[in-house]
Structures are given as C-alpha cells and as structure tokens.
C-alpha cells in the first residue's frame, strides 16, 4: 500500500486524529443545523408575513447571506467582532454563528416555499370546519409543510458539512486540515501520502453525507 | 472568484467595519502584556500546522519543527503552558491584531509592509525566494515564463507580493494551504512554484523530477517572531531572550534538531541567524 500512501494513516494516532477532525466538522454542522431549523421555522413564517416591511427585511437578509461568501462571514465574525466590540469569540462559536446565520436564512426560505405551496383551499377548508388560525396551522398546515420541508432541509445539512472545510481559516483543525497535516508531516517518508489521505478524507465525507442524502431522497419519494 | 480574493475581501470587510465604528474601538488594548501572559499561565502561539519542517503536527498529534522548537523554549523560559493555534499564511496578521495569539512563530518573513501592521522581534533565520520547476522544463529566469504559463504561489506570502510587484504580467495560481500548492505543482497545473527558497530547495531534494532553477530571488529577508503592534513588554522580552539564546548557540541546535534532515549541513550557516545578528546585508525592502 506504500504506493497509494495509505500507510501513513496507520502511523501513530493519525487515523484517530482524522476521525476527531471529522467529528469537529460534524459537530459544528449538527449544532448549526439544529439551531437553523429552530430559528428558520419562525423566520420562514415571518417571510410570508402580510407586512411589507417584515418581508423586505427578510428579503435583504436572505440576499446578504446569498451574496456574502461564507469565508468573508467567518472573518467578520471571528476577527471583526474582536476589533469592533472587543468580544473574544472562540473559533468554534464564530463558525456556528456564521453557519446559523446562513442556515437560518436558507431554512427560512425553504419554510416560506413550503408554506406558500400549501393550496389556499386547505386554509379555507380548515376555517370552514370552524378551526381558528392557530389550530388550523397546527393540525392542517404544519404537518403538510414539514413533509415538504424535511427532504429539502436534509440537503442543507450535507451542504453545511461540506462547507465546514472553510473553518480551518480561523484556526479550527477539522478533518481536511488534519489530512493536510498528515500529508505534510510525512512528505519525506511517504511522498504519495496526498493521494491516500485525500482519498480517505473523501471517503469520510462520503460516509457521512451519503446516508443523509439517501434518506432525503427516500423521504422525498415517500412523502411527495 | 478564488479563495485568496475572498480572504482579501474578508480582511477589507473587517477593516471597513472597524473603521465605521468609532470611539469604543480598542477600549482595551488588543494584546496581553508580558505580566498578563505570565499571570494567566498560558501563552497563545500561532504556528503553522502543515509546514514541515518549520511547523507541523507529527503522527501523535504533537506540534514539531524549527519554529515550534523555539516556541517550546519560550514557553519554558516564561514558565507558562503553550496553547498552539494553527494559522494559515493569510491570517497571521489578523490573529495578532485581534490579540487572538500573543506571538506568531509561523515562518513569518519580515517586510516593511508587515512591520507597519505588527511588531517584529529579532530575526532567527535568513530567507530569500526561490523558484522550483519540473526537470523537463526548468525555469531559470522569470523572463522564461511564457504568456500561457502560470506560477504557483501561496496567498499572503512574500513570493506573492514580490511577483505581483515586480512581474505583474506573470499569471499567478494562488492557493491558501501549502499542501494544496504542492499537490498542484506535482499534478503539473503550473510551470513553476515560487516560494521561500528553503521551501523549494527542500521540495526539490525530496521530490525527484523537480529542480530549483532560481535558488535566490528578490532581496535577502529574515524570519522573526512577531507580536501585536505596541506590545512592548513582550517584544522586549523576546529580543532579550533571542540575544541570550545566541550565547548558547540555540538556533544551531534548533537547526540540527529540526532542519538538518531536510536541508543538510551545507545550509546551516546560511540559514541560521544567531542572537538576532544578521551576518549578511541588513534587511531592506527592495
């Protein structure tokens, strides 16, 4: 296996370190996803608000998130807040803030899309049955919305996991960074390590993301 | 849009926000003084984690290398624990300016532009630029670079600044991480790779099929520890420490422990700066 550079993975605690790096990436994205969903649902409801001002505000928010590269956001939150406000946020907290800022907007947009895709007649039928707004939302609209939402939000999770590779820029050592460290530490002994290590990192990302996206497409077929 | 442009944009955005806010900025100093560091019992040192043999992580997860050897000694003499922060070339200044690390020991080349942003202590190593290219098309002069050829650089390094300034016509292929640049050259994505000469010499020794066509380019520079601008107590201590370490030939021992395998004994006196005294010409930009 020398030629593929896989041998370096079994030196010392290298493989454990890769897995620890993977856990860092998964932990950041999991926390971010949960917070994004919790904050994204009310955000999405507000995006369908009758108030023009609220809608416009969320429109601006969504556009900012879409236009700003995540790396710029990471730098602003990690370094910028220290410069301006003197806050000393940890790198991981900064990463989670950025991912939630991003995820909440995307999630909100998905919720908005799911909500307006529910035909008007559902609201009217619920009202005709004597349900008030809250009850009809809880028992008629929400169950249908969630079904449409889950497959879409799962895709957001896999995108977040893949985007965590950027957090190395603010000093977080995640799986890809560990991979680069292993390659560099062995550049003399195993010059081919890059292939084996990057292939392993690819496999690790795949093993995490594939079941998630399979689940998404399964749910999509089942609930569509 | 390339990543390095994003970093530049990010840095500009951060700067922009800081300029917008007035008054409250730096109510507290951005850095920790020598006494504050000693009191806290921990010093934050920014090093590279993927730049063997200067700063890297070994198979047991321990930081190693020429820079780290010095860092370990600094921690010992200060009597504090060391918290290593893994930095990238492009974020080193930002880390110091926000006080997120106390010292940067990440193969930091002293330049005039950088000296306006951070304070450099006495140097501990010499460096110039070099260019490495494949054996079958050795680049011996930057004038040989064709119109369609690209040269690899790592964002935020002196090589990038030098080429942009002096060879604006050369197309650059920029990478953020050392490992990415190395992979790109090995895959033949560009005609050559410009970096610190130590890097390219080591690269050519280790990788068959590559030659250092240009071993020394630009002005001879030095590598030094850097602290947040204005952190005089820490800077003074560092300078005294480096002078004192010179008396015991500390940096020669450091070279022999960390760099000998990579560069061989021939380069020891060329590369090492002992006691902060640069033997050759004084460091000047241009």
Q: How many domains of chain A, as an integer? A: 1
Provide the CATH top-level class of chain A: Mainly Alpha
Spans of at least 5 consecutive residues with low confidence of chain A: none
Looking at CATH, which topology of the largest domain in chain B would you report? Answer: D-Maltodextrin-Binding Protein, domain 2
What global shape of chain B is seen? globular
CATH class placement of the largest domain in chain B: Alpha Beta
Helix count of chain A, per DSSP? 8
CATH architecture type of chain A: Orthogonal Bundle
Tell me how many strands of chain B there are: 13
Query: Which structural class do the helices and strands of chain B define?
Result: alpha/beta
Order of helices and strands of chain B: HHEEEEHEHEHEEEHEHEHEEHHHH
Task: Tell me how many strands of chain A there are.
Answer: 0
- CATH T-level topology of chain A: MetI-like fold
Q: Total domains of chain B, how many?
A: 2
The most extensive contact between chains is:
A-B, 38 and 54 residues
Any low-confidence stretches of chain B, pLDDT <50, length ≥5? 21-27, 280-286
CATH homologous superfamily descriptor of the largest domain in chain B = Periplasmic binding protein-like II
Strand residue content of chain B: 15-25%
Q: What is the CA-based Rg of chain B, rounded? A: 19 Å
């Amino acid at each position: 296996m020398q030629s593929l550079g896989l041998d370096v993975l079994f030196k010392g605690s290298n493989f454990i370190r890769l897995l620890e790096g993977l856990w860092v990436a998964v932990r950041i994205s999991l926390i971010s996803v949960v917070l994004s969903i919790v904050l994204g649902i009310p955000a999405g409801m507000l995006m369908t608000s009758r108030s023009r001002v609220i809608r416009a505000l969320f429109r601006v928010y969504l556009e900012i998130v879409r236009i700003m590269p995540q790396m710029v956001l990471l730098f602003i939150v990690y370094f910028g807040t220290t410069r301006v406000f003197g806050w000393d946020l940890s790198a991981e907290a900064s990463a989670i803030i950025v991912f939630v800022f991003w995820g909440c907007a995307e999630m909100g947009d998905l919720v908005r899309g799911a909500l307006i895709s529910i035909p008007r007649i559902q609201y009217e039928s619920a009202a005709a049955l004597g349900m008030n707004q809250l009850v009809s939302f809880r028992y008629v609209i929400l169950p249908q919305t969630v079904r449409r939402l889950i497959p879409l939000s799962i895709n957001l999770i896999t995108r977040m996991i893949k985007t965590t590779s950027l957090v190395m820029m603010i000093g977080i050592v995640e799986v890809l960074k560990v991979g680069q460290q292993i390659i560099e530490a062995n550049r003399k002994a195993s010059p081919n390590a890059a292939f084996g290590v990057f292939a392993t990192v690819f496999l690790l990302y795949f093993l995490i993301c594939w079941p998630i996206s399979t689940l998404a497409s399964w749910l999509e077929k089942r609930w569509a | 849009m390339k990543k390095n442009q994003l970093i530049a944009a990010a840095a500009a955005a951060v700067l922009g926000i800081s300029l917008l806010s007035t008054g409250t900025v730096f109510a507290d100093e951005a850095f920790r003084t020598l006494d504050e560091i000693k009191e806290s019992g921990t010093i934050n040192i920014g090093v590279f984690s993927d730049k063997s043999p200067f700063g890297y992580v070994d198979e047991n997860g321990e930081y190693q290398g020429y820079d780290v050897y010095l860092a370990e000694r600094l921690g010992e003499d200060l009597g504090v624990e060391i918290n290593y922060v893994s930095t990238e070339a492009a974020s080193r200044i930002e880390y110091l300016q926000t006080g997120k690390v106390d010292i940067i020991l990440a193969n930091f080349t002293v330049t005039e532009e950088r000296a306006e942003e951070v304070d450099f202590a006495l140097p501990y190593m010499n460096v110039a630029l070099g260019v490495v290219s494949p054996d079958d098309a050795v680049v011996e002069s930057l004038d040989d670079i064709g119109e369609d050829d690209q040269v690899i650089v790592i964002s935020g390094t002196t090589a990038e600044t030098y080429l942009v300034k002096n060879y604006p016509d050369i197309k650059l292929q920029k990478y953020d991480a050392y490992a990415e640049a190395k992979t790109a050259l090995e895959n033949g994505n560009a005609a050559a790779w410009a970096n610190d000469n130590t890097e390219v010499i080591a690269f050519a020794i280790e990788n068959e099929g590559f030659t250092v066509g240009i071993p020394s380019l630009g002005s001879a520079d030095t590598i030094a520890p850097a602290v947040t601008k204005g952190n005089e107590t820490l800077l003074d201590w560092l300078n005294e420490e480096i002078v004192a370490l010179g008396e015991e030939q500390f940096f020669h021992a450091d070279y022999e422990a960390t760099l000998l395998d990579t560069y061989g004994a021939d380069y020891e006196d060329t590369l090492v700066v002992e006691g902060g005294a640069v033997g050759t010409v004084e460091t000047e930009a241009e």
